[in-house]
Amino acid sequence: MKLIARLTLQVCLLAAACFGAAPAPEAAQPGEELARMPDVSGRYGGHLTIGQRSEPKTLNPVTVTDAVSREVIGRLMGDLIEINRSSQQTEPALAKSWKISPDGRVFTLQLRKGIRFSDGQPFNADDVVFSFNVYMDEAVDSPQRDLLIINGKPIVVTKLDQYSVRFTLPRPYAAAERLFDGLAMLPKHLLEKPYREGHFAQAWSLNAQANEIAGLGPFRLKQYVPGQRIVVERNPYYWKVDHENQRLPYLDELVFLFVGTEDAQVMRFEAGETDIISRLSSENYNLLSREKSRAGSQLADMGPSLEYNFLLFNLNDLSGKKLEVVSGKQAWFRDLKFRQAISAAVDRDSIVRLVYGTRGAALWGNVGPGNKLWINQAIPHPSRSVETARQLLKSAGYSWNSAGQLVDSGGHSVEFSIITSSSNSQRVKMATLLQDDLSHLGMQVHLVPLEFRAMIDRIFQSFDYDAAIMGLGGGDADPNPEMNVWSATGTSHLWHLGETQPATAWERELDQLMQQQMVTLDYAKRKQLYDRAQQLIAENLPFIFLGTPNILAGANARVGNFHPAILDPYTLWNADELYVRGPAIERAGIR
Amino acid sequence: MGIKTTILLAALAFTHLILLFAGFFAPYDPTAQDRELPYAPPTHLHCRNASGFHLRPFVYAWTSPPAGAQPDDYQENYREDRSREFPLQFCVRGASYKVLGVFKTDVHLFGTTEPGKLSLLGTDSYGRDEFSRLLFGGQISVAAGIAATGIALLIGSIFGLIAGYYGGWTDESLMGVTELFLSLPWLYFLLGVRAFLPLHLSTVRTFFLLTGVIGLIGWARPARLVRGLVLSSRHRNYVLSARGFGGSDFYIVRRHILPEVAGVLLTQASLLIPRYIAAEVTLSFFGLGVNEPAPTWGNMLSTLQQYNVLVSYGWLLAPAAALIVTSVLYSSLADVIHRG
Fold first, then answer.
1. pLDDT confidence of B285, banded at 50, 70, 90?
2. Which of residues 186-215 of B touch A (CB under 8 A)?
3. Which end of chain B, C or N, has fewer beta carbons within 10 A?
4. Hey, are the CB atoms on A283 and B306 less than 8 Å from each other?
5. Chain A residues 443-472 with a CB less than 8 Å from chain B
6. β-pair partners for A156
7. pLDDT tens-digit profile of A251-263?
8. ipTM value
């Protein structure tokens, strides 16, 4: 009996710890410059549960590298200027306004006055300067550091007064205000000590106590249970208010449950144990939409994502590497007509139907139909033609032997392997379709699914592969994040890594275009440059673009203000506006 | 030989014959995709239509899916087109294949005329005939399972016999080796093996690699089992007396100890074969398995790791059913042999 009583008590305590009273929103203080969201309405109270594929690795916004951790950290932190995930445009956040000098190099930001961190301490220009110093410090080794070092020179951050900060860029930088999105403003009063003592990277690990962490996001850390969940509760000092001047967020708590795989996410969602699910595959989306018992859930197909999946040939410089077999095949891969033939033979419609269950789009270039601001509509979408492909191969000196196999002018039969990540079933499926498509050209293609890290090692380090199926993009709609793919020295210039200068004339032009667009401030002019870049890419096919999945998400019917976007974080970007539908929850002293 | 034994042996022979002559029994090429028919449910054989009963069964083709239909919503998409019947035919000509890897022919036991489709077990996500894949896949999987079990048991029993029979430091050092093998981090070993090998391996080489790797990983447990048995039988009176009569080690092991161990080895074999067939799924994940488009029960089952496939397309469980049937047959066989 005693044991039962104790267990019951423990369960009660646990429940109280999970869903106990969240702090009530603080009343607005005189002089506090809150951001009013005129279109937002909802009701206070309740919690929502989100299933995560794995456990976050850290709560440190500066050193974080994985998407799962970022999903949690993003709810705790605020940035100066935000990209509205729905409109894809920038909007004021912690900075209420900003001015850009005519030459595009100097940004002067006005901060909101009187707003406070989630621990109640005030936020001002010192925190901004401190945050940027941390981000740009080589010793901290933040993955975002590269963005802030332009042409090898750091951005100079100067405090003008308590609520205004000046950013001086070493040279003009297009859409520089987008840089501010995702750079969390850190509380100097909590983090200066670990930073000065040189162990910043260890700060804010998962073991940190809730009162050691403070941010400017809609939520603050409440509890972390290893292996099970992270609970975040309302930040009572959050700086956004709804149309009735009620302080956001509406939710008392957000619970991140660590469930494991995508399939586990789907099962938990089906069972009603989680409320929101994002990054759904089309199969699971269709499964959920078929599920009659859960007529109560809202599913959203947001249309094509910004990700592009492609076939990539190894055009790396292999001299000095003992990879004679691969370098022997590079003569084919370097031949534009060979790549064009493959592009012509790919059945993209089948990819969209069989891989994405029609919830996706075929691609002929790196910018897909989801990116309405930047897509070059003039890029042709030739339909699949094995005949055209054969003509192209014939004109490039290839022929077919008696067994129907394709042979090059030297009499070697065309045979190569495609590597892909074995854990990504969609890409494995694409590769299987591609293998069959190319067999119609007499090519013998072998499919080699590899463990993810083994594949990455071959593509980035050893260069020991013929061709690969991969995916890139998806971060932001702007061309700037694409710099590292298309500029010759970029770290994701996958087909030819480690180039010191462009290997071909078109690559040189592409390189120049990408550099130019980065310093061009006018949208129309920039679009012109990027259009030409897209055209060059589509004509020269360093990647053979295949397709892009739609962004698919779902939420329980009781979730209000559920507006998924095609930009990451797809469903939680407006976590401050989400609410639980149902009878109004009485709460005193809210206004 | 009892009636049960006869039935068992007949069933085993029948299963293996079908797998051996998969090309003849399978109506389609196991790698041929039909992109218009992904996840098609099993075709129904009909004997009755508006005009009454027919001795020769027939099938209906599928109607083309309604515009805008989701391809994986098979319940909506796949409706029988009753306007035309396609009779079941025997000894039809179809995709060419090789009998026992030697003779080329294109005669199949049964089939129907296009556009009728006779997919007894439905199709997979690429519209490939599941029944044909099951038969062709069984060829590789069953052979690999048996061969890997053979290797594991052979190495295991040699080490186990030596360790158990001689005892002392031989025993200790050999059992030390098995402990080492049991505790090795196989994940990294497999990654290493994969990195060491060329990217593409032919199916034949993959087959030897598979059996080799599984056998190498698997020998330690049977070795410990055998060692325990040998250790206990070593001191039996008949062994001691045989030794007293001056029997050589080899004679004693062969005459007195091996028969003691044989039963256990057979039971082990019947347990290991299905397990090793399934082990291929794991190895495929590291790029060490048989790759697309060649079918094996392992890679066919691996698609079932996806939840939506598992709950939506029941017919894709066919390789699991085949695996269960095979393992029941083998364990019954072990049982029969064990009881003499």
1. low
2. 191, 194-195, 198-200
3. C
4. yes
5. 446-451, 454, 457, 464-466
6. A168
7. 999 999 999 888 8
8. 0.81
Q: Please give the structure tokens belonging to residue A293.
A: 């018992």
**Residue-wise pLDDT tens digits, A126-164:** 999 999 999 999 888 888 887 788 878 899 999 999 999
- Angle of CA points A553, A58, A240, to nearest 5°: 60
B199 with A417: Cβ contact below 8 A? yes
Question: Chain B interface, mutation test: which of A277, A290, A552, most B Cβ atoms within 10 Å?
Answer: A290
A540: nearest Cα among A565, A588, A506, A581: A506
Q: Does A433 touch chain B (CB under 8 A)?
A: yes
pTM, two decimals, is 0.83
Q: Tell me the pLDDT tens digit for each residue of A381-435.
A: 999 999 999 999 999 999 999 989 999 999 999 999 999 988 888 999 999 999 9
Of B142, B172, B148, the C-alpha closest to B159 is B172
CB-side exposure of B99: number of CA atoms within 13 Å? 9
Query: Which range scores top for mean pLDDT: A449-453, A503-507, B195-199, B259-263?
Result: A503-507
Mutation choice for A interface testing from B74, B187, B291, B299 by most A CBs within 10 A:
B291
Residue A133 to residue B249: CA distance in whole angstroms: 78
**Alpha carbons A490 and A493: distance in angstroms, whole number:** 5
Question: β-strands A47-52, A253-258: how paired?
Answer: parallel
Please tell me the number of Cα atoms within 13 Å of A44 on its side-chain side. 22
Inter-CA distances, B197 with A289, A458, B190, Å: 44, 13, 11
Helix residue ranges per DSSP H, A78-233 = 125-136, 145-148, 188-196
